[in-house]
Design a protein that fits this description.
Layout lengths: L1 H20 L3 E11 L2 E10 L7 E7 L13 H9 L3 E5 L4 H4 L3 H17 L1 H4 L1 E11 L1 H11 L19 E4 L35 E6 L7 H13 L4 E6 L13 H17 L9 H10 L1
Parallel strand pairs: 3-4, 3-5, 5-6, 6-7, 7-8
Antiparallel strand pairs: 1-2, 2-4
């Protein structure tokens, strides 16, 4: 009888642990910035808690060459990470195809988004000291600018509020906007103002980069050089290269296998800094996606 009771208690405890791995979350949208007739929104994926507390956050900036794209690019990563107990934000920002803007307005909007989250951290339930910047391609450029370049700002921003992140997670990011990189023709005469590789100092936050070695849009050499310069300055920078993979390889719609691989890398990196709750269930999540 005692053995049966112990087994029952073990099963109940294991079940509680499993439930703890998958936090429920809610989604909501709100405007973080209004400028030149555009109301810029961000989507928030927020874990449901049994008691109020401020949680770490991660902000995903979508890619699209500063020309297009939508905040929905990182929806699946956002849903999974929110289930692991971190608040996720996916902001919209001005792009050329919709607002006729340049890459510099994109960087300004990214700074505004980071400052909005930090300055409204109490009402959003965010730990203001643990906000991660993430993004892919041009969105990776925006995330990298948050951690390295602070000179491109909206006049209306409260400059007393820092936009600097706690960590950076970059998916095939644009780190060089010069002739050796991507986008020099879009920033003619200002090629290096939003080029992170040209602004690295000794105080850049820990960074994870995931990049396809076969990327012909943003050359792999760019992130190799970025990583080398980061380490020379004493910064932590982990580069994970993926053999033969092209630009955008991490998107589920293109490469489900590499969506899973990069999500696992992201999860492990965030876990190193104790930003997630419960245990990983990414393999089960991925199987659910594949079966749906």
């Amino acid at each position: 009888m005692r053995r049966h009771i112990l087994i029952l208690l073990f099963l109940i405890f294991s079940g509680v642990q499993l439930l703890g791995q998958q936090n429920k979350f809610t989604t909501s949208n709100f405007v973080y910035k209004e400028i030149d007739g555009s109301a810029l929104e961000m989507t928030m994926y927020k874990p449901v808690l049994s008691r109020p507390m401020n949680l770490p956050a991660i902000v995903f900036f979508f890619g699209g060459g500063w020309t297009g794209g939508t905040p929905g690019q990182f929806k699946m990563q956002a849903e999974y990470l929110a289930s692991r107990g971190i608040i996720v934000f996916c902001p919209d920002y001005r792009v050329k195809s919709r607002q006729g803007t340049s890459p510099f307005e994109c960087v300004k909007d990214a700074h505004s988004a980071m400052r909005y989250i930090r300055s409204h951290n109490r009402e959003l339930g965010v730990d203001a000291d643990k906000i991660v910047a993430a993004g892919g391609s041009a969105g990776g450029n925006l995330a990298a600018c948050m951690g390295i370049i602070d000179e491109i700002n909206e006049d209306s921003d409260d400059m007393s509020v820092s936009a600097k992140p706690f960590l950076m997670v970059l998916f095939n990011p644009v780190v060089d906007t010069g002739k050796r990189g991507y986008g020099s023709e879009k920033v003619v005469g200002r090629e290096f103002e939003i080029s992170p590789v040209h602004h690295i100092t000794a105080d850049v936050v820990p960074t994870l980069i995931m990049h396809g070695k076969g990327d012909t849009t943003v050359p792999y050499e760019n992130v190799l050089r970025f990583t080398s310069l980061m380490k020379q300055e004493g910064n932590r920078c982990k580069l994970k290269g993926y053999k033969k993979q092209k630009h955008g390889f991490f998107n589920y719609s293109k490469k489900p296998k590499y969506f899973k691989k990069t999500l696992i890398q992201t999860e492990r990196f965030l876990e190193e800094y104790h930003l997630l709750r419960g245990e990983s269930w990414v393999k089960k999540y991925y199987k659910t996606l594949c079966d749906s």
